[in-house]
Amino acid sequence: xxxxxxxxxxxxxxxxxxxxxxKKDVPYKENECNTCRCANGQFACxxxxxxxxxxxELYNCEVGTEWKNNCNxxxxxxxxxTVCTNYDC
Length: 89
Known about the structure:
The chain is 25% helix and 31% strand. With 89 residues, the chain is of the alpha+beta class. The chain has a six-stranded antiparallel sheet with strand order 3-2-1-6-5-4, with no helix packed on it. It comes from Aquatica leii. It holds the Pfam family Pacifastin_I. Keywords: Signal. Residues 21-54 form the Pacifastin domain. InterPro entries: Pacifastin_dom, Prtase-inh_pacifastin.
């Protein structure tokens, strides 16, 4: 049963990231708040509470859109909001 639940969670995560693929050793930032990394194909972010108006706006982006922010690439990911690479430009 635990395996089936784990498999379901992995499928849901894969669907949520349909257009976004994280890359190993690339720094990411979620909604200009949480820092994220890709390790062994898994995307993980810190869990800070992000209550700024800007973070809320970034969370409510149009899923599936992609854009550039200076030298960083950004994606709107379902159930996460805006995820951007986090390079110093």
